[in-house]
Amino acid sequence: MDLSGATLQLDSFEELATPLFDQLYNFAHWLTQNREEAEDLVQETYVKALKGFSSFQLGTNFRAWIYRILRNTFLTSRKGLKVTMTVPLYFDEDEDIPEATIERDTPETILFARSSQESLQKAIDELPVHFREILLLCEVEEMSYQEISETLSVPIGTVMSRLSRARQTLRNQLQPHSQQQAGPRIDRGTNYGL
Fold first, then answer.
1. Cα–Cα distance for residue pair 192/194, rounded to 1 Å
2. Residue 190: helix, strand or coil by DSSP?
3. Is 87 domain-assigned?
4. How would you class 7 by CB atoms within 10 Å of its CB: exposed for 0-12, middle for 13-18, buried for 19 or more?
5. Domain range for residue 150?
6. Is the residue at 99 inside a domain?
7. Angle (nearest 5°) at CA 88 between 85 and 91
């Protein structure tokens, strides 16, 4: 075995993979909805990617290649298992609470913003995995349709239709919430005894 070739390969992998760590972790966390599972998923992804790096063709899209490994690892780890949502018994009070960065924020505006953020997070969490992953790759990771297509191994048309359906599902889930917060709506032409 050529030791210098193995070292060159390890250096190339490290150079390509290291900058993507945070992005991969964020995507894994969105998919798993659990911090420890996301860490395990990213670690397993890196191990598989390093083992299979010899099959990667330099000059092609490494980002899409490693995201595909992460996604496939996630899907195979969940095969035959029912995905359940659990609520931790403990939480860090500083976690997931946006800090007021502008002094003109009032308790009401902070509460409204927090409520909206929680509603959006809940709606995203309730999306089926194939919609959630498309939405996250496009909106959070800012991948192009081509990169998403390569990552998920689906045609671009499928990417576009799933993204459209995911967005529509989110709109449908959030619309009743936003109307509820806006208060009761009075239809035109009714005076309701006034």
1. 6
2. coil
3. no
4. exposed
5. 107-182
6. no
7. 135
Contact criterion met (CB below 8 Å) for 135 and 162:
no
- Residue 88 C-beta-side C-alpha neighbours within 13 Å: 9
Q: Give the DSSP H/E element, type plus range, for residue 122.
A: helix 107-126
3 state DSSP class of 57: coil
Helix residue ranges per DSSP H, 33-144: 35-51, 62-77, 107-126, 129-135
Q: Which among 163, 145, 167 is positioned nearest to 64, based on CA atoms? A: 145
Tens-place pLDDT, residues 47-102: 999 998 888 887 888 999 999 999 888 888 764 244 433 444 444 544 443 443 33
111, 175: one domain: yes
H or E, element range at 23: helix 21-32
94 within a domain of the structure (yes/no): no
